[in-house]
Amino acid sequence: MDIHYTEEVSNALKENRAVVALESTIITHGMPYPDNLEMARSVEAIIRDNGAVPATIAVIEGKLHVGLNDDQAEWLAQQKGTMKLSRADLAFAMVRGATGGTTVAATMMAAQAAGIAVFATGGIGGVHRGAEESFDISADLDELGRTPVTVVSAGAKAILDIPKTMEALETRGVPVIAYGQDALPAFWSRDSGFTAPLRLDTASQIAEFMQMRTQQKVFGHGGILITNPVPQSSEIPYSEMATIITVAQNEADQKNVSGKAVTPWLLSRIVEISGGKSLETNIALVKNNADLAAKIAVAFSKLK
Amino acid sequence: MDIHYTEEVSNALKENRAVVALESTIITHGMPYPDNLEMARSVEAIIRDNGAVPATIAVIEGKLHVGLNDDQAEWLAQQKGTMKLSRADLAFAMVRGATGGTTVAATMMAAQAAGIAVFATGGIGGVHRGAEESFDISADLDELGRTPVTVVSAGAKAILDIPKTMEALETRGVPVIAYGQDALPAFWSRDSGFTAPLRLDTASQIAEFMQMRTQQKVFGHGGILITNPVPQSSEIPYSEMATIITVAQNEADQKNVSGKAVTPWLLSRIVEISGGKSLETNIALVKNNADLAAKIAVAFSKLK
Amino acid sequence: MDIHYTEEVSNALKENRAVVALESTIITHGMPYPDNLEMARSVEAIIRDNGAVPATIAVIEGKLHVGLNDDQAEWLAQQKGTMKLSRADLAFAMVRGATGGTTVAATMMAAQAAGIAVFATGGIGGVHRGAEESFDISADLDELGRTPVTVVSAGAKAILDIPKTMEALETRGVPVIAYGQDALPAFWSRDSGFTAPLRLDTASQIAEFMQMRTQQKVFGHGGILITNPVPQSSEIPYSEMATIITVAQNEADQKNVSGKAVTPWLLSRIVEISGGKSLETNIALVKNNADLAAKIAVAFSKLK
Ligand SMILES: [Mn+2]
Ligand SMILES: [Mn+2]
Ligand SMILES: [Mn+2]
């Protein structure tokens, strides 16, 4: 299978050094240029500062890249009309020569293929509100159920149905671990009001858990979901976010925003309603997750 | 594992020539004798005319057949009380010496075991209307999520809940490709009113996509669903079908038809309401799918 | 992978003799001490009386045990605050040095890893009532979909939504077999009012079905669910149980019992309402399942 590595990533993998995978829909669909590029670069810097190597994953003109060099990141950050690649269409983009950002599901697939055990993102997809009628459930959940990669997130995006998402993860046998607290985080907020099923307090503990799962590969273990609360200084408390989300959703309903348009519409409307604060929180949590993911990858590389 | 091949299929597989799998519930449960036999023979002829070898799959007195000779097809077409075999009961029929037609799920399993990459059918099973209460979701969807066979269909049977079926396929990471158009077909109709997630325009493009997925087997790719619109001359437009389906369903509700009886009852009532037209359309789309499947199998055999 | 066997189990596995796995949440969460220990011992005795070896599975201070000696069983039966381990947290308990009983899902995982083909329990988890809103679906169902172990049960616990559980098993391709009757049992009752999808009448027939599935491992078969009706002398008829369950559920609703607290609350309230009869039935059905599981394991060991 044909994966294009940067020399930095390729060398790190050969030498069993710490590598952290990064998704690229945050670049292609998350923010406008040049904010997206700046964000990507500062996230990569945080990973390097921790002694790990960042491996941003994307499909560029049909080639699957694990690690982007400066020119590639710059180029990708400026593309319009790129695909948003999940399990169903990753190979499709590759054979058609398309360019796309990878979601959590597709990034997990590429990370596993490349031998990268840890992956940092903002939040995972999950069960959408109203899924009891729409059946709209992200492919990220099935991927977590089958692909043995540790995903460091700030939880499920809080516009989703969090209790249903937690149930769906339990059904699929995915461990959900709150980092350093009992409460399950909710993306922009440190505390969703729900208790996380499991808790670990250090990067080393997480690495040891990963090692135990690796040793038990006969069990066919899938992914691990780490939910890492956004730093207190950057959080928007859940009570406040709940109101903002409700307002945004009511507007979406009134304007008949539907289907795949709902999530991006809500996320952008929430930025407006919060006066830009939700975007700051989003950036802070992504950086915070990159930091923890790098620490986990370093701890894990010492155990192997 | 004990598979019974016809010499024609066995030779074609050894020589890496194009083979198309066919399901057999269309013979055992889809139509009465001798219409079912005639249909099966004309479908096989279409595949041979395209330079591929047909491999009808069925369990006959406990033996799994991949390819039926004339006597076997004739015999199977006349059996009464045969099983309708899905993943859960394929091995059960084999150990008990039973006879059964294979659904999409069981045909995919046998095709994969035999090394056949392409399979032609009418329509796949999916999420039933009312599944938000009944949880009635076909095993075909899970099978598409895990078994790497390309299924050439005219979409999901339109008595199903098409939007929910599409969501369930996305969750499971199944690429859904409309052939030669943007619209998702809806079995008897060329246009369901929904846009298909992906589109390809030639058998070669589909074969290339299959090859890319085969090369990427590390990704654990499952099946590919091709949705091939019925020829215009034979279609019943969706607006017309929607009315017919609604009438049939209201009758089913009034008569308290429930459980596993609903689908066959609806399909047969729809034939009556449409004055036989829906059966003609059904036959036309199966032939059309066999034709496309054969062209894909031939293109794929040249790439290997 | 580090599994701790008793000498009895280890020898039996080496010599390809019949072994029956047993879960341990019945010990840690099902009954108080010393009833739980007494129950565990009598179940093990029934298995030995049939010429098979019992292998109770549990995690004790981080170690995965397949088979417990007398001291370990005695110790486990007296622990408080143990974990209830499913797929998501089995490895977590192991790395953290915790102690826990294994659910159906985790017991299946350990049985497969140990090479044990048959597992006896009371009832499996399934789709909870109200799951159309809560999405509360046991990980046991996904495990049955993927892990090739035969689970001998008295059906799904009848406080669950039985029709939805049956649909979910069909979607996942799990054969559900009623033993010796057409009706699907419903834990405390011999007849749920539904017909089981499949029926077998002897332990040998079940062993032959298992062998056929084993020979067809290319199909990626998961588990088999045997539903074994509780002996008539111990059953509570379904009409009676339905009333008791409804009363208990109404009380749970009035008292706002919710989330993970519902199932244990209902089970214990049902014991009270039935004047202790439901507990007797529960014990009788577990013993009855151990007996059948042992007979299946013996028959299967002769076929290998
Ligand atoms: Mn979706
Ligand atoms: Mn069904
Ligand atoms: Mn649950």
TrEMBL record, chains A, B, C:
Reactions that this protein is recorded to catalyse: D-ribose 5-phosphate + uracil = psi-UMP + H2O
Keywords: Glycosidase, Hydrolase, Lyase, Manganese, Metal-binding
Purpose: Catalyzes the reversible cleavage of pseudouridine 5'-phosphate (PsiMP) to ribose 5-phosphate and uracil. Functions biologically in the cleavage direction, as part of a pseudouridine degradation pathway.
Essential cofactor(s): Mn(2+)
Cofactor binding comment, as recorded: Binds 1 Mn(2+) ion per subunit.
Gene Ontology molecular function terms on file: hydrolase activity, acting on glycosyl bonds
Protein name: Pseudouridine-5'-phosphate glycosidase
Taxonomy, superkingdom: Bacteria
Protein family membership: Belongs to the pseudouridine-5'-phosphate glycosidase family.
EC nos: 4.2.1.70
Gene3D superfamilies: Indigoidine synthase domain (3.40.1790.10)
InterPro entries in alphabetical order: Indigdn_synthA-like, PsuG
Assembly notes: Homotrimer.
Active-site residues from the entry: E23 (proton donor), K157 (nucleophile)
Organism from which the protein derives: Ahrensia kielensis
Keyword Lyase tagged: yes
UniProt: substrate binding residues: K84, V104, S138, A139, D140
Residues that bind Mn(2+): D136
Pfam family for this entry, one: Indigoidine_A
Enzyme superclass (EC): lyase
